[in-house]
Amino acid sequence: MLSHTAYLQREHASTITLNDESDGRLTVNISDAVSELETVKFTIQTKTALPSFQQRHMSVVRCHEEFIWLHDMLNGNPEYAGYIIPPAPPKPDFEAARDKLTRVTAAENTMTEDEYKKLRKELESDYLALFKKTVAMHEMYLTRIASHSKLREDSNFVVFLEYTNDLKVRSKNKKELIGGFFKSMTKSVDEALLGSQKDVDEYFIERRSFLEEYHNRIKETTKKSELSAAAASSLSLDYMQVAGCMALISKIDPSLQRFMVQTAITFESLQKLQKRVGTDEDLKFTDLFKYYQRETQAAKSLLYRRARALADKEIAQTKLEQANKRFKDIPTAEAYLEDCRIRFEGISDMAKNELETFQNRRVETYRKHMVDMAELQIRHSQSFITEINKSIDLLKNL
User: In terms of DSSP H, where are the helices of 253-329?
Assistant: First the structure.
């Protein structure tokens, strides 16, 4: 079991953040997280002035499965059909990082003490970076709900934040997973069938076209961002290898020992700085793109629900025409058509507001992250220059 309270407090500013639309009446943050063998438990702190909550200050411990339960409750509520439901946070996966740590520990006797310490520290750094990303994604999910004027009043969300005991939520069994798969397949087929649907509202025609194009573009951007971050991290490994070669040369050629040792120390320092460059790119860009890839899919799901409601209204209109021809069940058909019309118009009205908010939030979030990343790059460059100038001065005095 491993707790990272201090680490989270120190590094919280480096994680990805969404544009804050909250009115300050409900603030949620993850103050601590504990990594156990099969799960991660998050300590969630809440401050609120909303009347739907019985307490003003709350602290609960939740696991990932409970986040998924909350998402399923929100996503399955027909009252929220006109809203963009925040995408669920990805499942924590530390298996690869733990395996690497285990293998390094097992191979301790085959390395020198310095090599073992450096490698283990490097792997622990990678593990903590992954841990931080996991916490950030889960906190972002709660922040999105807390900033939504309707979703934050949801009774399940209130229970999630206020009920101090375990929610007794389990992972989905095979039957439920298979059921979810077939439900997803059915939705995909239905979406394809609705693709040829005629929509007279130009606003939604334009939004649908934009989201399709944007979703494809951001998937490609995410892949390229991952490659860029990986290249930055790979360069840090090159620095470490150069440092190792310099250290070996210092042992072989005594006349170059002081020069090589100092140069090796410099490359080790540059390696740490370069590692941070890759980590920041991953957090500020790649994770942001991954999030908006999922959020864009959530926006597309909203348009699907509206298209489904429009199709239901058209079917109801056809049934009413048939009832009029038969002079039978006309009141029932009229009532059904009216229900479908009210549902479709309600979803359409909510969807316009949601899509506009989504547009504004996305632009502001990207702008903030671009500025943050530029400031980080300036600081990294200054650190590189400082380290190199320091090394030059030391080498001159040898």
Answer: 257-281, 287-326
